[in-house]
Design brief:
By secondary structure, the chain is mainly alpha-helical. The chain has helices spanning 6-12, 23-36, 53-69, 95-103, 113-116, and strands at 78-82, 85-89. It has a two-stranded antiparallel sheet. Strand 1 (78-82) and strand 2 (85-89) form a beta hairpin. It is globular and about 65 Å long.
């Protein structure tokens, strides 16, 4: 699943044109953003040409965030230490990418489950 191309990313964020942007990183951030979209709005057939623009923009912002902050893709909460300072790393999502989704009605958080998380299940004919 890829919601954007390397060329689209470099056009939107020219400051990161020299960054290591591998295909697997584009796939990873696309999957991350897809996981935040309400179930009713998800479409597994989305690609770089059919994904809604807010989801594409959120995915590109997520990659920019990952590059800028050098946050690894982690599957668990991690304690990060630097000298005598330490902090718990609980999230690797860009708040801007989540705001893009939320402002455009795709983020499931902050809404009733029945608003955008529930799947429509037809009964009868």
């Amino acid at each position: 699943m890829q919601f954007f191309t390397k060329a689209e990313f470099e056009l939107k964020y020219p400051d990161y044109a020299n960054a290591d942007i591998s295909t697997w990183k584009i796939e990873a951030v696309s999957e991350m953003i897809f996981s935040q979209v309400g179930l009713r709005y998800r479409d597994t057939s989305w690609d770089t040409t059919s994904v809604p623009l807010p989801i594409k923009n959120a995915s590109m912002e997520q990659l920019r965030f990952m590059i800028e902050h050098d946050i690894p893709f982690i599957d668990y909460n991690k304690s990060v230490k630097a000298g005598n300072m330490s902090a718990e790393l609980n999230s690797d999502y860009s708040t801007l990418s989540l705001r893009i989704l939320g402002n455009n009605g795709y983020l499931y958080r902050g809404s009733r489950m029945s608003d955008n998380m529930a799947l429509t299940i037809p009964f009868g004919g």
